[in-house]
Write a structure and sequence with these properties.
It is a single chain. It is built from 5 helices and 8 strands, in the order αβαβββαβββααβ. Strands 1, 2, 3, 4, 5 and 8 form a 6-stranded antiparallel β-sheet that branches. With 175 residues, it is of the alpha+beta class. The radius of gyration is 15 Å and the shape is globular. The chain has one domain: 2-Layer Sandwich (Alpha-Beta Plaits), CATH 3.30.70.560. The N terminus is likely disordered. α4 packs antiparallel against α5.
Amino acid sequence: MQSTPITNAIFGYMTGIYLLLGTNLGNRFANLQRAKEILTSHVIIVKRESKIYETAAWGVSEQPSFLNQVIEVDTGKSPERTLKICQMIEDQMGRIRTEKWGARLIDIDILYFNSHEYSTEQLTIPHPEIPNRRFTLIPMAELAPNMIHPSLNKTQEELLVACQDSLEVHLYDVE
């Protein structure tokens, strides 16, 4: 993967950007909604949303289950700027980073930035854990089943079929 910074001049206005939202503290459904509202206020336009899925915690199992959702967004922001906005929203909503894979009010991960590959010390796109996490692949396959992972050359459906993650992922009943 190439390690060159990408600027807005190279990207311009981008479509086909996928973010994963996750939450397991407080009013989880409201946390997802609030994160999308704040993203929109930063000119990150939510185009499509997957259904919401509930999953046992991944990595550290002794914590409440997560709600996860993938959203497709459009923006004129660079990957680095998009990351900074996502981290700012996490902080604004009260996320406290105490342990890796720990409980959180909100987590926003950049999964894909169109079909681009991007790597710096702070950010790797596509997200390196996509092929290992059903809670990511199920909503990705719902939104973009035939989208090709740029470095693995597999569709989201193919990645899901090959995924070794055994955590159950259930459709969340919003009612």
